[in-house]
Amino acid sequence: MWDEKKQSGENADEITEDFWSLPVTRTKSYRQPSFEGRTTDTVPVDASAGEKEAAGEKIPPRREDAPAARPVRSADRVPAYKTSVYSGDGYKSYGKEQRGWNGGKQGEDVDFNDLPVQPKQKSTAGETLSQRDGSGWLIRQITIRRWINDFSFYGRFAHDAQISHGRAGRPEDGREPVPFFAYVPQYAQMNSRQLGYYLWFRDQAKAGVYLQADMAYIVLYVFEILNLPHLIPPAEGIEILCRLWIHYRQAYPRLDSYLGEWVPDYSMIHDVPLPACLSAILPEIVRKAQFKEFYLDFIKEADKRDMETLADILIEAYSDYDYRKSRYYNVNKAEYDTEIRGALCHVLMDAWQKKRDIFVLDRTYRLTRDAYCGAIAQTDVKRRIDISFHSCIRPPETRKFVTDIVKYAENRLRLKLRIKSKLGAEGISPADKQLVDAYFGEEPVVESKRRKGIGAEPDYLKQYEADTSGFDFASAGAIEAASWGNTERLTDDISFAVPPEDVFCDMDDIPQEEVSGGLSTDTAEEILGTAVMADPEAEFAAATEEAETISAVSEAEYALEKAAVRALLSGDFGGFCRERDVFPGQVADAVNEIFLDMIGDILIEDSGTGKDFHILDDYREEAETWSRT
Question: Which of 222, 329, 372, 582 is the most buried (most CB within 10 A)?
């Protein structure tokens, strides 16, 4: 602190220690606020007045003649944004709409924000609009109700769609495609060139001419059909939807996901049937659809064409085995596609007539759908659909039924094509097995087994087969005499020459002087024995005796293998191996080696686990015969 001298100016340069002292820090403390005397205090109530009047500010009386103000919701307002529409005079913006399009004077502009708000009507959410029975064999009842919502939406889109619907496209606008991209396309998102191309594209698509167009144009036209059922008759609208779908689905695969759900909703809401043109792609779209029974409801009687379509759908979407992945499919594609489909259709016809297997419709399913999910649909056209239906595809037995028939049909087709068949189809019923057998006819008689991995025997190999007409000793003697003559000419050794007439002579007929010329009788017999054939009957007897000896040895040697095959046939192969303390894999390899020598193919096959061994169905008869002889 400054002293008095410092304050008066004397000794101004002298600074005491107190100069550097800081003031004491003020202690902070919390003080609870008090609302006394403020407007936030509660109004004291006079106890003597009771509950009639408070001793505070009085509430002003309500004027009965003043209308109650209702808050304006965003859904009641139509936004005024700038876009373009086509009119007779060219493209004009209608951010402020022309009076000529709204019943007013031509040239006057009206801002949509200035339109009066309609008074709130009584809510009809969930109201039942129609209820009817199904016309097919699966759908039993359909109930159409209003969508459960208290506010309106997409009103501006519906208004734009009505305006656009009354305009025609111009050829000059469709000379070349105009790009347009939007996740949820609307009229307000297009400029004048895009709108002109859309109008021309829409007119051509309605006439059956499909131009090159981005997906946004297609989806926008679909939205227009869904939102204007009062301007586009539903019978005409579903035809346009399905033809658009068929034509553009290869270029835009996402259309299967969109129209696969919107088309059934449109059909059920307006009670219009599916067009016949859609049957060509049913097997592909049923697999992706959520309500699959809608696409299967077309069958009304045992018509062969309907059953063929149903067979295609079941093979495509409800078979655990895809025959098109078979190693023999690419070579025999036409036979596979025709015969397997025909065999399944033959079984389905019989099952339909007898109402068995998948056609036992003893369970009712119920489903509730919100129509046009993911699409732009104004409140007036959006619906909730309650469906009661039967199903031939939801039970788990359907997949097993279709899979076993497809596998067994391929086995029969392979037998017809002389291809080894070994697909397991143990679950097929005897009735279905007989139907497939009847479709393919009698089993062909296989004359000889083919080697594994080798095709049929070429025709030129037949020229090398041995002659089975018998043995001509005279011809054989002439051939041998000619060969000895060739030997003499090549070696110039006269001692090897043997006259043709003495080839088959006995040892007693040989002159002694020829024998005594340096060779003994035994040596001569040994030399001539290489060229002179012995007695045929003796040779045959010796060969028969040798074969019997080998057969006896084989019977004793293959006793274990034959017992193993009998155990496999009876289903007790595991117990057989445990009793004899042998490995199943070793026994199977031994049996397969025997059959590779006999028929050129293995007999026992392993499932891949090293535990499940079974005999190939093609060689079951050979196994039974071999194991018991």
Answer: 222
Residues sharing a CB contact under 8 Å with residue 164, sequence separation 6 or more, in sequence order: 85, 86, 187, 195, 199, 224
Q: Residue 85 half-sphere exposure, CB side, CA atoms within 13 Å?
A: 21
Where in 524-629 does DSSP place strands (E)?
604-606, 613-615
Beta carbons of 440 and 339 less than 8 angstroms apart: yes
Question: pLDDT digit string (tens) for 63-78?
Answer: 555 555 555 444 444 4
Helix axis angle, 620-628 to 559-570, nearest 10°: 130
Cβ atoms 260, 296 nearer than 8 A: no
CB atoms within 10 A of CB 568: 23
3-state helix, strand, coil in the chain (%, to 5): 50, 5, 45
Predicted pLDDT at 464 = 63
Q: Are strands 365-370 and 383-389 parallel, antiparallel or unpaired?
A: antiparallel
One domain, residues 565 and 607: yes
* Cβ burial, residue 127 (10 Å; 0-12/13-18/19+): exposed
Same domain assignment for residues 517 and 572: no
Please give the tally of structural domains in the chain.
2
- The whole-number pLDDT of residue 488 equals 77
How remote is the C-alpha of 103 from its chain's centroid? 54
β-partners of residue 382 are none
Give dist(CA 456, CA 449) in Å, integer: 10
Cβ–Cβ under 8 Å, residues 614 and 605: yes
Residue 496 has pLDDT above 50, yes or no: no
The amino acid that residue 138 corresponds to is L
Long-range contacts of 590-594 (CB under 8 A, 24+ apart): 590/560, 590/561, 591/561, 591/564, 591/565, 594/558, 594/561
560 shares a domain with 520? no
pTM of the model: 0.56
Distance CA 167, CA 511 (A): 126
**HSE-up of residue 536 (Cα within 13 Å, Cβ side):** 5
Is the pLDDT reported for residue 324 higher than 70? yes
Q: Which amino acid is at 463?
A: Q
Where do we find the tokens 């347009």?
A: 180
Q: Which domain holds residue 521?
A: 477-533
Residue whose entry in the numeric block shows the structure tokens 């697909």: 423
Tokens describing residue 500: 């043709």
Mean pLDDT of 57-63: 60
User: What region, left, alpha or beta, does residue 526 occupy, with left being phi > 0 and alpha being psi -120 to 50 degrees?
Assistant: alpha
* 438 assigned to some structural domain: no
Residue 94: predicted pLDDT: 40
Residues listed for the chain: 629
Looking at residue 569, its pLDDT comes to 83
